[in-house]
Amino acid sequence: MTRIDDKVRRVDALEKARGEAVYLCDMRLPGMIYARLVRSSVPRARIVDIKLPELPEGYSFFSAKDIPPEGQNSLLMIAKDWRCFADGDVRYVGETIGILTGPSRAVLKTLDESIEITYDEQEPVVSIDDSLALKGGPILGDDNIHCQLVSEKGGDIERVLEGAARIFEETVETGFQEHVHLETNAAICTLEDGHYTFYISAQCPFYVRKSVAGLLGLKPEDIVVKQTTTGGAFGGKEHFPDVLAGPLLVAESYLKVPICLVFDREEDMLYSVKRHPSKVTFRTGVDKDGRILGSDINVYYNVGAYLSSSYVVLQRGVFHANGVYNFPATRIHGYGMATNTFPSDAFRGFGAPQTLFAVEIHLDHIAHALGVDPVEYKRSYFLKQGDETVTQGHIVEKVVLEEMLSQVAQKSDYFRKAAEYKRGSGRGIGMSFYNHGGAFTGNGEQAIIKAHLRLVKDGGHYTILCGQTEMGQGFRTALRKIVCAVLGVDMDDVTYDNPDTSKVPDSGPTAASRSTMIVGRLAEKAALEMKEHLGEDHYEVETEYEHPDGHPWEQATFKGDAYLGYGWGAACVELEVDPVTNEVHVLGIWSSHDIGKAIDELIVHGQVNGGIIQSLGYASMEKMENKGGHFRQSSMSDYVVPTSMDFPRQEWGLVDNPYEWGPFGAKGMGELVFNGADAAYIDALERALDTEVHKIPMPVEDIEAVRRDG
Amino acid sequence: MIKFTLNGRQVSFEGNPLTRLIDVIREDLGLTGTKEGCGEGECGACSVLRNGHLVTSCIIPVGAVDGDEIVTIEGLRDTEQGRCIIESFAEGGAVQCGFCIPGMVMAAQALLLTNPDPSEEDVRLAISGNICRCTGYDLIVDSILLAARKGRGLW
Question: Which helix (H) or strand (E) holds A199?
Answer without folding.
Answer: strand A195-200
